[in-house]
Design brief:
single chain, about 200 residues, Rossmann fold, seven-stranded mixed beta sheet, 7 strands
Length: about 200
């Protein structure tokens, strides 16, 4: 009998073999604990890759529904296969598109941003209209493989330096945003949790 444990192990192995940057165990533990603690029912994910984080979120809470967007066709197709294997088609909706060109009308309790790191402000600004009052926006890779904490001079690649700068801009953007309370956790590769303040709240 093939069980969920075996299937998830296979997904993780595929990620390693094909260099797909899925969330690490510490990050997944944080995310799933967060979902249970805050009784999250609907999630919008930007950056499905092969469906791993969406699957892990779905498995932690039996009534959770996820809509997730991926622009890479190979990864999207692998995500479709993985969601089917775990029989989660009813709860995970996969969208094959560039998130920045995707119009979503639904509202969510949690928006998980885990796509192109230089575009975080754009994703945030585009999808915050889809967040319920009191909802959360969680952003992964705030340390960008530890590089955000490094001295910029130590980073050889100009391209990587550019991404690191964009993440720093995003951190400033979150801290200055009065509509949200943001905390960055030293967990996994750095996880930002931005809680939307309720209207008229204190
Ligand atoms: N959340 C996944 C990992 C996502 S990796 C997990 O932890 O299992 C980031 C993914 O975002 C990549 O597959 C990349 O193709 C996708 N991506 C990057 N920019 C995007 C965009 N603008 N729209 C949709 N997907 C995007
Ligand atoms: Mg990530």
């Amino acid at each position: 009998m093939v069980n969920n444990y075996t299937l998830i192990k296979e997904i993780k192995e595929y990620a390693i073999d094909n260099k797909v940057p899925i969330m690490n165990q510490e990050g997944i533990d944080f995310l799933t604990t967060f979902i249970i603690k805050h009784q999250i029912k609907k999630v919008l994910e930007i950056g499905s890759a092969i469906g791993y984080s969406a699957i892990m979120m779905s498995l932690c809470s039996p009534s959770l529904k996820i809509t997730t967007i991926e622009r890479d066709e190979t990864r999207y197709l692998e995500a479709v296969r993985n969601v089917k294997k775990l029989k989660l088609e009813d709860r995970i909706t996969l969208i094959f598109n560039d998130a920045l060109r995707t119009k979503i009308d639904d509202k969510f309790d949690l928006i998980f941003i885990d796509a192109a790191k230089a575009q975080n402000i754009k994703f945030f600004e585009l999808f915050e209209k889809n967040l319920n009052d009191g909802g959360f926006i969680i952003t992964d890779n705030m340390y960008f493989h530890g590089l955000v904490k490094k001295n910029e001079k130590e980073i050889k690649s100009r391209n990587v330096r550019g991404i690191v700068r964009k993440i720093k801009d995003y951190i400033a953007f979150l801290k200055e945003n009065d509509n949200y309370n943001t905390t960055i956790y030293d967990i996994g590769d750095g996880i930002a949790v931005s809680e939307k303040k309720t209207r008229g709240g204190v």
